[in-house]
Amino acid sequence: MSSGASIDFTLGSRRLASVDRALATWAFSLEDALDGSSPLTPPPPGADGLRVLSAPQSRIAEIEERFPDHLLGSRQSYGRHYIAMEGNSFENYLAGFSSKTRSTLRRKARKLAKEAGEYTLTEHITRAEVEAFLEAALPLSAKTYQARLLDAGLPDSPEARAEMLNKAQNGQMRCFLLWVGKRPIAYLSLPLVGNTLVYAHLGYDPEFARLSPGTVLQLIALERLFAENAYAYFDFTEGEGAHKAMFGTDSIECSSFVLLSPTIANRALLGARASFDGAVEAARSVADRTGVLTKIRSALRA
Length: 302
Fold this sequence. Notes:
Elements: E1 3-11, E2 14-27, H1 30-35, E3 49-56, H2 57-66, E4 71-84, H3 90-95, H4 99-116, E5 119-124, H5 127-143, H6 145-150, H7 158-169, E6 173-180, E7 183-193, E8 196-198, E9 201-204, H8 213-228, E10 233-235, H9 242-247, E11 250-260, H10 264-290, H11 292-301
């Protein structure tokens, strides 16, 4: 079935404008990407095109050959980072970090305890526990950088809440909250797909940003998850990021893109998007050389 999707005009990670299209979607799970043999089902008739999410490089030529007349647009290529958990232990996982990184992680935990006070981590698995997680995490999410600037906070629609609670009912959610006293300061939600934990949402109170609560939460959560000895992978999903690269043990090269039917309107749309991206990249290059880019990023996060 085709679904609503959009061709976005973005500045960094922030969407400035979008144009809707009815696109079918092929989304590759991490296990699909690693296995390399998942079937490609035909898109339905009447769709404007196809949205491909996190396709491994080994499948891209095959996908494009299926649609030789379609227009390629909005392509993003990245390493999809993940942790190989099966048969591994938390101790072995930590040993994979450099001694400098291990020291930095310990220092962040000590600094959080020293400057914010003793912290605790609560784990939320059952339906009732995930309800309690949402009660505490949604107000926190609304304050985060991810929600305010990237529209990437915890989803709070009735449909999204129902989906999370249904997953919890079936034992397919792992959620964590980091607390200082009675105040939640960071959250992590992880849907379970097969034997893979999916890194869906991580956020933290901006008042505590300099104390790296997201990093502290991530490390403690991983220690508990490794102890369960029940998961094959921890999937950091599509997109690059220092956090993902640091905590991941492996990565696979993937791309996300759209293939649009070759109409005049779609040609004009992709042409406008290409011109916009070119202008943004030129401005970014100038700002980077002059040091303005760093100041802009700091101002946006403030």
